[in-house]
Amino acid sequence: MDLGISGKWALVCAASKGLGKGCALALANEGANVVITARGAEALEAAAAEIRAAAPGVQVLTVAGDITTPAGRAAALAACPQVDILVNNAGGPPPGDFRDWDREAWIKAVDANMLTPIELIKATVDGMAERGFGRVVNITSGAVKAPIDILGLSNGARSGLTGFVAGVARQVKLASRNVTINNLLPGAFDTDRLKVTMAGTAQKTGQSIEQVAEARKLLAPARRFGTAEEFGATCAFLASAQAGFITGQNILSDGGAYPGTF
User: Fold this and answer.
1) The sheet that has 179-186: what strands, in order across it?
2) Per-residue DSSP letters for 25-40?
């Protein structure tokens, strides 16, 4: 299927590895030019080289910096000729016990996982509407639907973003101009983030990380962890021309782990 995004420009945040890189690679494979951001310049350039090798016909630009800061956002936006596709992503806050988190920890989590995506949405969606095409995909977390006790900072901040998106995605001035905003909720994917979470669980329970990993796999009927490639493919579809009638939705990708009907 031709997704109809060849030649479009995508800004993909936190794309040097994991799910962000998976999304950038999938978009590039569909012919979209990509601007990728991350804090680590070396890993970012390695990701860019990988994407260029896989999709030699597209432009791949890198912006090393912290997307959660005004300067980082300004640099990323300045590097992208126009943002047709925005993939919001930022490293999740650390796991732990809410009793140990002070106001600073909460503000940092909200800045990264709620306010940063909102600022980037604010900076891009009106231009998308003027051009008659726009796709925003926010990488949030399956914990928005099924909270995990040690991920309270993430649960709170990402749920705030989810509530915001539920309203703004339904603005007629955006939806009627072919601008969609959706959230993509990963479950357990084989990423560094998952390893950190499992290490926290292992420390809390006294189990080995291997035991925690095997138990975590059993929570999903798929009996495995997801891959960044399949997550990226879902992101690319949400960014496609064919997904123009999907907006304001929370798309869960978790191998069937969430047990609810809704």
Assistant:
1) 60-64, 33-38, 9-12, 85-88, 134-139, 179-186, 250-253
2) HHHHHTT-EEEEEES-
Does the global pTM surpass 0.85?
Answer: yes
Q: Determine phi and psi for 252, rounding to 5 degrees.
A: -95, 125
Bridging pattern class, strands 85-88 and 9-12: parallel
Most confident of 19-23, 93-97, 216-220: 19-23
CA pair distance 75, 73, nearest whole angstrom? 5
The CA distance from 130 to 213, in Å, is 47
Q: What is the pLDDT of residues 142-161, one digit of tens each?
A: 999 999 888 899 999 999 99
Bridge partners, 253 (sequence order): 186
Give the number of other CB atoms < 10 A from CB of residue 241.
Answer: 13
Q: With 90 as the cut, is the pLDDT of residue 258 above it?
A: yes
Contact 212, 201 (CB under 8 A): yes
State the pLDDT at residue 257: 94
How many whole angstroms separate alpha carbon 81 and alpha carbon 167? 28
Q: What stretch of H or E contains 43? A: helix 41-54
CB contact at 8 A, 159 and 148? no
From residue 58, alpha-carbon distances to 44, 62, 93, 117 in Å are 17, 13, 33, 25
Burial of 187 (0-12, 13-18, 19+ CB in 10 A): buried
181: left (phi over 0), alpha (psi -120 to 50) or beta: beta
